TrEMBL record:
Source organism per UniProt: Paenibacillus pseudetheri
Keyword Cytoplasm attributed: yes
Gene: glmS
Reported function: Catalyzes the first step in hexosamine metabolism, converting fructose-6P into glucosamine-6P using glutamine as a nitrogen source.
Subunit structure: Homodimer.
Designated name of the protein: Glutamine--fructose-6-phosphate aminotransferase [isomerizing]
Active site: K362
Amino acid sequence: EKGGYEHFMLKEIHEQPKAYRDTMRGRINAEGNKVILPELNMTEEQIKNIRNIQVVACGTAYNAGVVGRTMIESLVRIPVENDIASEYRYRSPIVTPETLVIVVSQSGETADTLAALREAQANGAHVLAITNVVGSSIAREANDVLVTLAGPEIAVASTKAYTSQLVAFGLFALYLAEVRGTQTEGQVAKILAAMQALPEQVEEILAQKEAIKGYAEQISEHKNLFFIGRGVDYAVAQEGSLKLKEISYIHSEAYAAGELKHGTLALIEEGVPVIALATQEAVLEKTVSNIKEVKARGADVLAITHQEHLTDLLRSVDQVFVIPKTLPMLTAALSVVPLQLLSYYASLALGHDVDKPRNLAKSVTVE
Ligand code: M6R
Protein backbone atom coordinates (compact mmCIF):
# COMPACT_ATOMS: atom_id res chain seq x y z
CA GLU A 1 0.00 0.00 0.00
CA LYS A 2 2.97 2.31 0.48
CA GLY A 3 4.01 1.57 -3.08
CA GLY A 4 7.53 0.57 -2.11
CA TYR A 5 8.12 3.67 0.01
CA GLU A 6 9.08 3.41 3.65
CA HIS A 7 6.34 5.81 4.74
CA PHE A 8 3.12 7.22 3.37
CA MET A 9 4.54 10.71 3.67
CA LEU A 10 7.43 9.95 1.33
CA LYS A 11 5.06 8.25 -1.09
CA GLU A 12 2.73 11.25 -1.01
CA ILE A 13 5.60 13.68 -1.54
CA HIS A 14 6.46 11.69 -4.67
CA GLU A 15 2.87 11.70 -5.83
CA GLN A 16 2.84 15.48 -6.15
CA PRO A 17 3.58 15.62 -9.88
CA LYS A 18 0.58 13.35 -10.45
CA ALA A 19 -1.58 15.35 -8.04
CA TYR A 20 -0.71 18.51 -10.00
CA ARG A 21 -1.61 16.89 -13.31
CA ASP A 22 -4.82 15.37 -12.01
CA THR A 23 -5.98 18.63 -10.44
CA MET A 24 -5.40 20.50 -13.73
CA ARG A 25 -6.74 17.78 -16.03
CA GLY A 26 -9.85 18.79 -18.00
CA ARG A 27 -9.79 22.26 -16.50
CA ILE A 28 -7.69 23.98 -19.17
CA ASN A 29 -8.91 24.46 -22.75
CA ALA A 30 -7.10 22.98 -25.75
CA GLU A 31 -5.50 26.33 -26.67
CA GLY A 32 -4.12 26.58 -23.15
CA ASN A 33 -5.44 30.08 -22.59
CA LYS A 34 -8.61 29.52 -20.57
CA VAL A 35 -9.61 27.79 -17.36
CA ILE A 36 -12.86 25.85 -17.53
CA LEU A 37 -14.69 25.06 -14.31
CA PRO A 38 -18.14 23.85 -15.31
CA GLU A 39 -18.68 22.38 -11.85
CA LEU A 40 -19.11 25.84 -10.33
CA ASN A 41 -22.65 27.08 -9.62
CA MET A 42 -21.58 30.69 -9.27
CA THR A 43 -22.99 32.79 -12.08
CA GLU A 44 -20.93 35.28 -14.07
CA GLU A 45 -22.93 38.01 -12.44
CA GLN A 46 -22.15 36.72 -8.96
CA ILE A 47 -18.46 36.59 -9.85
CA LYS A 48 -18.50 40.12 -11.20
CA ASN A 49 -20.15 41.32 -8.00
CA ILE A 50 -17.66 39.82 -5.56
CA ARG A 51 -16.31 42.65 -3.42
CA ASN A 52 -14.15 40.75 -1.01
CA ILE A 53 -12.94 37.23 -0.34
CA GLN A 54 -12.26 35.55 2.98
CA VAL A 55 -10.17 32.39 2.92
CA VAL A 56 -10.77 30.29 6.00
CA ALA A 57 -8.95 27.10 7.00
CA CYS A 58 -6.69 25.39 9.55
CA GLY A 59 -3.04 24.41 9.57
CA THR A 60 -1.55 23.55 6.25
CA ALA A 61 -4.77 24.39 4.42
CA TYR A 62 -4.55 27.86 5.97
CA ASN A 63 -0.98 28.15 4.71
CA ALA A 64 -2.13 27.25 1.20
CA GLY A 65 -4.77 29.96 1.48
CA VAL A 66 -2.10 32.57 2.19
CA VAL A 67 -0.51 31.76 -1.16
CA GLY A 68 -3.98 31.71 -2.70
CA ARG A 69 -4.48 35.25 -1.49
CA THR A 70 -1.42 36.46 -3.37
CA MET A 71 -2.64 34.76 -6.53
CA ILE A 72 -6.13 36.24 -6.34
CA GLU A 73 -5.02 39.70 -5.30
CA SER A 74 -2.36 39.95 -7.96
CA LEU A 75 -4.45 38.54 -10.81
CA VAL A 76 -7.88 39.88 -9.96
CA ARG A 77 -7.32 42.75 -7.50
CA ILE A 78 -10.12 41.64 -5.19
CA PRO A 79 -9.19 42.16 -1.53
CA VAL A 80 -8.61 38.85 0.24
CA GLU A 81 -8.33 38.13 3.95
CA ASN A 82 -6.95 34.93 5.45
CA ASP A 83 -8.54 33.59 8.59
CA ILE A 84 -7.80 30.70 10.90
CA ALA A 85 -11.09 28.82 11.09
CA SER A 86 -11.15 28.59 14.88
CA GLU A 87 -10.79 32.37 15.09
CA TYR A 88 -13.07 33.32 12.24
CA ARG A 89 -16.45 32.86 13.77
CA TYR A 90 -15.61 34.54 17.05
CA ARG A 91 -14.38 37.74 15.47
CA SER A 92 -17.77 38.73 14.01
CA PRO A 93 -16.48 38.66 10.45
CA ILE A 94 -17.88 41.36 8.20
CA VAL A 95 -19.74 39.41 5.55
CA THR A 96 -22.11 40.74 2.89
CA PRO A 97 -23.90 38.99 0.01
CA GLU A 98 -20.95 40.17 -2.13
CA THR A 99 -18.48 38.32 0.05
CA LEU A 100 -17.10 35.05 -1.23
CA VAL A 101 -15.84 32.78 1.50
CA ILE A 102 -13.40 30.07 0.43
CA VAL A 103 -12.97 27.25 2.93
CA VAL A 104 -10.00 25.01 2.34
CA SER A 105 -9.87 21.52 3.80
CA GLN A 106 -8.14 18.38 2.61
CA SER A 107 -10.41 16.07 4.59
CA GLY A 108 -13.54 18.18 4.37
CA GLU A 109 -14.27 17.14 7.95
CA THR A 110 -12.33 19.63 10.06
CA ALA A 111 -14.78 20.80 12.73
CA ASP A 112 -13.46 24.36 12.96
CA THR A 113 -13.60 24.82 9.19
CA LEU A 114 -17.10 23.37 9.01
CA ALA A 115 -18.25 25.71 11.77
CA ALA A 116 -16.72 28.66 9.90
CA LEU A 117 -18.54 27.61 6.72
CA ARG A 118 -21.85 27.58 8.60
CA GLU A 119 -21.13 30.95 10.17
CA ALA A 120 -20.36 32.44 6.76
CA GLN A 121 -23.53 31.03 5.23
CA ALA A 122 -25.61 32.23 8.17
CA ASN A 123 -24.29 35.71 7.40
CA GLY A 124 -25.29 35.42 3.76
CA ALA A 125 -21.97 34.63 2.11
CA HIS A 126 -21.54 32.28 -0.83
CA VAL A 127 -19.13 29.55 0.23
CA LEU A 128 -16.73 27.80 -2.09
CA ALA A 129 -14.98 24.74 -0.68
CA ILE A 130 -11.59 23.59 -1.92
CA THR A 131 -11.39 20.02 -0.70
CA ASN A 132 -9.88 16.67 -1.52
CA VAL A 133 -12.87 14.58 -0.43
CA VAL A 134 -15.93 14.83 -2.64
CA GLY A 135 -18.49 13.35 -0.24
CA SER A 136 -17.21 15.15 2.86
CA SER A 137 -19.35 17.29 5.18
CA ILE A 138 -17.70 20.48 3.93
CA ALA A 139 -18.22 19.50 0.29
CA ARG A 140 -21.87 18.73 0.96
CA GLU A 141 -22.64 21.95 2.79
CA ALA A 142 -20.72 24.42 0.64
CA ASN A 143 -22.48 26.30 -2.16
CA ASP A 144 -19.69 25.45 -4.56
CA VAL A 145 -16.94 22.86 -4.55
CA LEU A 146 -13.61 22.83 -6.31
CA VAL A 147 -12.03 19.44 -5.74
CA THR A 148 -8.34 18.82 -5.59
CA LEU A 149 -7.46 15.49 -7.11
CA ALA A 150 -4.55 14.58 -4.90
CA GLY A 151 -5.85 11.11 -4.11
CA PRO A 152 -6.12 9.83 -0.54
CA GLU A 153 -3.64 11.42 1.85
CA ILE A 154 -2.79 9.06 4.70
CA ALA A 155 0.20 10.65 6.44
CA VAL A 156 -0.85 13.11 9.13
CA ALA A 157 1.57 15.64 7.69
CA SER A 158 -0.11 17.13 4.65
CA THR A 159 1.99 17.37 1.50
CA LYS A 160 0.26 16.64 -1.80
CA ALA A 161 -2.99 18.12 -0.48
CA TYR A 162 -1.22 21.45 0.12
CA THR A 163 0.37 21.56 -3.30
CA SER A 164 -2.83 20.62 -5.09
CA GLN A 165 -4.65 23.33 -3.13
CA LEU A 166 -2.12 25.77 -4.59
CA VAL A 167 -3.04 24.55 -8.07
CA ALA A 168 -6.76 24.86 -7.27
CA PHE A 169 -6.18 28.45 -6.15
CA GLY A 170 -4.22 29.17 -9.31
CA LEU A 171 -7.01 27.82 -11.51
CA PHE A 172 -9.69 29.64 -9.57
CA ALA A 173 -7.80 32.95 -9.60
CA LEU A 174 -7.38 32.66 -13.37
CA TYR A 175 -11.06 31.82 -13.75
CA LEU A 176 -12.02 34.94 -11.79
CA ALA A 177 -9.61 36.96 -13.91
CA GLU A 178 -11.25 35.69 -17.12
CA VAL A 179 -14.78 36.48 -15.98
CA ARG A 180 -13.84 39.88 -14.63
CA GLY A 181 -11.52 40.68 -17.52
CA THR A 182 -8.50 41.52 -15.42
CA GLN A 183 -5.95 39.48 -17.41
CA THR A 184 -5.52 39.08 -21.15
CA GLU A 185 -5.67 35.66 -22.80
CA GLY A 186 -1.94 35.95 -23.38
CA GLN A 187 -1.25 36.50 -19.69
CA VAL A 188 -3.52 33.61 -18.74
CA ALA A 189 -1.75 31.37 -21.28
CA LYS A 190 1.63 32.25 -19.80
CA ILE A 191 0.55 31.37 -16.28
CA LEU A 192 -1.12 28.14 -17.40
CA ALA A 193 2.01 27.10 -19.26
CA ALA A 194 4.03 27.70 -16.11
CA MET A 195 1.53 25.68 -14.08
CA GLN A 196 1.71 22.80 -16.54
CA ALA A 197 5.49 22.75 -16.21
CA LEU A 198 5.30 22.27 -12.43
CA PRO A 199 5.02 18.45 -12.37
CA GLU A 200 8.29 17.99 -14.21
CA GLN A 201 9.97 20.64 -12.11
CA VAL A 202 8.90 18.81 -8.95
CA GLU A 203 10.51 15.66 -10.39
CA GLU A 204 13.75 17.60 -10.76
CA ILE A 205 13.62 18.56 -7.10
CA LEU A 206 12.81 15.02 -5.99
CA ALA A 207 15.85 13.79 -7.87
CA GLN A 208 17.98 15.86 -5.47
CA LYS A 209 16.51 14.49 -2.29
CA GLU A 210 19.81 13.10 -1.04
CA ALA A 211 21.13 16.64 -0.63
CA ILE A 212 18.16 17.51 1.56
CA LYS A 213 18.62 14.30 3.53
CA GLY A 214 22.17 15.30 4.40
CA TYR A 215 21.05 18.74 5.52
CA ALA A 216 18.17 17.25 7.56
CA GLU A 217 20.65 15.08 9.43
CA GLN A 218 22.65 18.20 10.32
CA ILE A 219 19.68 20.14 11.62
CA SER A 220 18.27 17.19 13.54
CA GLU A 221 20.90 17.91 16.19
CA HIS A 222 19.52 21.39 16.81
CA LYS A 223 16.81 22.47 19.20
CA ASN A 224 15.76 25.64 17.42
CA LEU A 225 15.74 26.99 13.94
CA PHE A 226 14.27 29.71 11.80
CA PHE A 227 12.67 29.98 8.42
CA ILE A 228 12.68 33.40 6.81
CA GLY A 229 11.32 34.87 3.60
CA ARG A 230 9.28 37.69 2.11
CA GLY A 231 5.95 37.54 0.31
CA VAL A 232 5.21 34.09 -1.07
CA ASP A 233 8.51 32.96 0.44
CA TYR A 234 7.18 33.92 3.87
CA ALA A 235 4.02 31.90 3.27
CA VAL A 236 6.16 28.88 2.38
CA ALA A 237 8.37 29.51 5.40
CA GLN A 238 5.27 29.11 7.57
CA GLU A 239 4.37 25.84 5.94
CA GLY A 240 7.96 24.56 6.23
CA SER A 241 8.04 25.45 9.91
CA LEU A 242 4.70 23.79 10.65
CA LYS A 243 5.79 20.62 8.88
CA LEU A 244 9.09 20.44 10.72
CA LYS A 245 7.49 20.95 14.14
CA GLU A 246 4.73 18.50 13.37
CA ILE A 247 6.85 15.47 12.65
CA SER A 248 10.39 16.13 13.87
CA TYR A 249 9.37 17.99 17.07
CA ILE A 250 12.22 20.44 16.47
CA HIS A 251 11.12 23.90 17.43
CA SER A 252 11.17 26.40 14.62
CA GLU A 253 9.71 29.75 13.80
CA ALA A 254 8.83 31.28 10.48
CA TYR A 255 9.52 34.96 10.22
CA ALA A 256 8.87 37.58 7.62
CA ALA A 257 12.50 38.36 6.82
CA GLY A 258 12.08 42.09 7.34
CA GLU A 259 10.52 41.60 10.76
CA LEU A 260 13.49 39.87 12.40
CA LYS A 261 15.10 43.08 13.51
CA HIS A 262 11.96 43.97 15.42
CA GLY A 263 12.70 41.48 18.15
CA THR A 264 13.51 38.02 16.90
CA LEU A 265 17.06 38.76 15.89
CA ALA A 266 17.83 38.45 19.62
CA LEU A 267 17.39 34.69 19.25
CA ILE A 268 19.94 34.30 16.51
CA GLU A 269 23.24 33.15 17.92
CA GLU A 270 26.26 31.19 16.81
CA GLY A 271 25.30 28.09 14.86
CA VAL A 272 21.51 28.53 14.78
CA PRO A 273 20.26 27.15 11.47
CA VAL A 274 18.30 29.62 9.35
CA ILE A 275 16.54 28.47 6.22
CA ALA A 276 16.12 31.46 3.95
CA LEU A 277 13.63 31.25 1.12
CA ALA A 278 14.95 33.64 -1.48
CA THR A 279 13.05 33.16 -4.72
CA GLN A 280 11.14 36.41 -5.06
CA GLU A 281 13.11 38.60 -7.42
CA ALA A 282 11.27 41.81 -6.57
CA VAL A 283 12.48 41.65 -2.97
CA LEU A 284 15.66 39.67 -3.43
CA GLU A 285 17.97 42.48 -2.47
CA LYS A 286 16.03 43.05 0.72
CA THR A 287 16.04 39.35 1.56
CA VAL A 288 19.79 39.24 0.98
CA SER A 289 20.28 42.04 3.50
CA ASN A 290 18.16 40.15 6.03
CA ILE A 291 20.30 37.08 5.42
CA LYS A 292 23.36 39.20 6.14
CA GLU A 293 21.78 40.33 9.41
CA VAL A 294 21.48 36.74 10.64
CA LYS A 295 24.87 35.75 9.23
CA ALA A 296 26.48 38.58 11.19
CA ARG A 297 25.06 37.00 14.37
CA GLY A 298 26.55 33.62 13.56
CA ALA A 299 23.60 31.87 11.91
CA ASP A 300 24.23 28.93 9.64
CA VAL A 301 22.20 29.74 6.53
CA LEU A 302 20.71 27.47 3.89
CA ALA A 303 19.14 29.42 1.03
CA ILE A 304 16.47 28.01 -1.25
CA THR A 305 16.61 29.95 -4.46
CA HIS A 306 16.77 29.96 -8.25
CA GLN A 307 19.97 29.47 -10.23
CA GLU A 308 19.98 33.06 -11.44
CA HIS A 309 20.15 34.45 -7.89
CA LEU A 310 23.13 32.34 -6.90
CA THR A 311 25.72 35.03 -7.41
CA ASP A 312 23.76 37.42 -5.19
CA LEU A 313 23.50 34.83 -2.46
CA LEU A 314 26.65 32.77 -2.47
CA ARG A 315 28.69 35.32 -0.57
CA SER A 316 26.20 35.49 2.29
CA VAL A 317 25.05 31.92 2.84
CA ASP A 318 26.60 28.62 3.88
CA GLN A 319 24.64 26.27 1.63
CA VAL A 320 22.16 26.58 -1.20
CA PHE A 321 19.44 24.44 -2.67
CA VAL A 322 18.44 25.44 -6.18
CA ILE A 323 14.88 25.02 -7.39
CA PRO A 324 13.77 25.33 -11.03
CA LYS A 325 12.53 28.67 -12.29
CA THR A 326 8.81 29.45 -12.38
CA LEU A 327 6.66 32.56 -12.12
CA PRO A 328 7.09 34.32 -8.75
CA MET A 329 3.44 33.63 -7.91
CA LEU A 330 3.93 29.87 -8.39
CA THR A 331 7.21 29.35 -6.55
CA ALA A 332 5.44 27.95 -3.47
CA ALA A 333 4.48 24.92 -5.55
CA LEU A 334 8.18 24.11 -5.86
CA SER A 335 9.96 25.63 -2.87
CA VAL A 336 7.77 23.74 -0.40
CA VAL A 337 9.03 20.39 -1.72
CA PRO A 338 12.56 20.59 -0.24
CA LEU A 339 10.97 21.67 3.05
CA GLN A 340 8.65 18.66 3.05
CA LEU A 341 11.67 16.42 2.43
CA LEU A 342 13.58 18.23 5.14
CA SER A 343 10.95 17.54 7.78
CA TYR A 344 10.58 13.97 6.59
CA TYR A 345 14.30 13.20 6.83
CA ALA A 346 14.71 15.08 10.11
CA SER A 347 11.90 13.04 11.64
CA LEU A 348 13.45 9.87 10.27
CA ALA A 349 16.90 10.77 11.62
CA LEU A 350 15.39 11.33 15.06
CA GLY A 351 13.56 8.02 14.98
CA HIS A 352 10.04 9.43 15.20
CA ASP A 353 6.85 7.97 13.82
CA VAL A 354 6.81 9.97 10.60
CA ASP A 355 3.29 9.15 9.48
CA LYS A 356 1.66 9.34 12.90
CA PRO A 357 3.29 12.10 14.93
CA ARG A 358 2.49 12.28 18.62
CA ASN A 359 -0.63 14.10 19.82
CA LEU A 360 -2.03 14.67 16.33
CA ALA A 361 -4.83 13.18 14.25
CA LYS A 362 -5.25 13.22 10.49
CA SER A 363 -8.68 14.71 10.70
CA VAL A 364 -9.53 17.05 13.57
CA THR A 365 -13.24 16.70 14.22
CA VAL A 366 -13.36 18.55 17.54
CA GLU A 367 -13.40 22.32 17.87
O1 M6R B 1 -8.28 18.29 6.53
P1 M6R B 1 -7.88 19.71 6.68
O2 M6R B 1 -7.20 20.25 5.47
O3 M6R B 1 -9.06 20.60 7.05
O4 M6R B 1 -6.89 19.74 7.88
C1 M6R B 1 -6.41 20.96 8.38
C2 M6R B 1 -5.23 20.76 9.29
O5 M6R B 1 -5.60 20.02 10.43
C3 M6R B 1 -4.06 20.07 8.60
O6 M6R B 1 -3.69 20.73 7.43
C4 M6R B 1 -2.85 19.97 9.53
O7 M6R B 1 -2.34 21.23 9.77
C5 M6R B 1 -1.79 19.06 8.88
N1 M6R B 1 -1.62 17.88 9.68
C6 M6R B 1 -0.45 19.71 8.70
O8 M6R B 1 0.44 18.88 8.05
